[in-house]
Amino acid sequence: MDKLANLGIDLGSIIFYIINFGIVLAVLSYLLYKPILKFIDQRRDEIKNSIQEAEKLKKTFEEGLAKSEAERKKVESELRMELDNLHKFTNQKKTEMIAEMEVARTSMLQKAQEEIDMRKAGIIKDAEDEVKKLMTRIILQIVENKVPEDVIQDSIKSAWNSQKTMK
């Protein structure tokens, strides 16, 4: 012990320091350590609850997302079906309208052809009448009233008809 005293270390002081350190440690433990541990435990519980709540929210969000994705796919398939039905309907109406237009076109062409034929026949008849009259006048002038007009008319008509049938 003398050797410790020679070094300047007092055993009583060391014991006093140890007791003093123990008292300080006990007081700090009682006043600070326990409240700090209690606070840390409370904070740990709050964090744990927050994580659990976040997991629940995440799960709820994922369920909602899956539900909305399924609903989106359902709506998308319904829209595709409606679009396909619309295309079918449009093509059907297009075909019907083309058929109606073809019938109307054919009818119009037939009517136009009939009208053309009627006008052609009328023009030909008028031309024939004009030619007959012209021939009658020419022949009458040639014959100078020596042959009766009725005979010339009948002769022209029969010649005309014979020429017509030869064609």
Provide keyphrases for this structure.
167 residues; mainly alpha; 0% strand; rod-shaped
3D architecture notes:
The protein is mostly helical and 167 residues long. The chain has one domain. It has helices spanning 2-7, 11-143, 149-166. Helix 2 (11-143) packs across helix 3 (149-166). The longest helix has 133 residues, at 11-143. It is rod-shaped and about 195 Å long. The termini are far apart. The model has no long low-confidence stretch (mean pLDDT 87).
What's this, in brief?
By secondary structure, this protein is mainly alpha-helical.
Q: Total number of helical segments? A: 3
Query: What can be said about the biggest beta sheet?
Result: none
Poorly predicted regions are: none
Number of domains: 1
Rg calc: 63 Å
Please identify the structural class as seen in this structure: mainly alpha
- Terminal CA distance: 165 Å
Question: What is the secondary structure topology, with strand pairs?
Answer:
Blueprint: H1 2-7, H2 11-143, H3 149-166
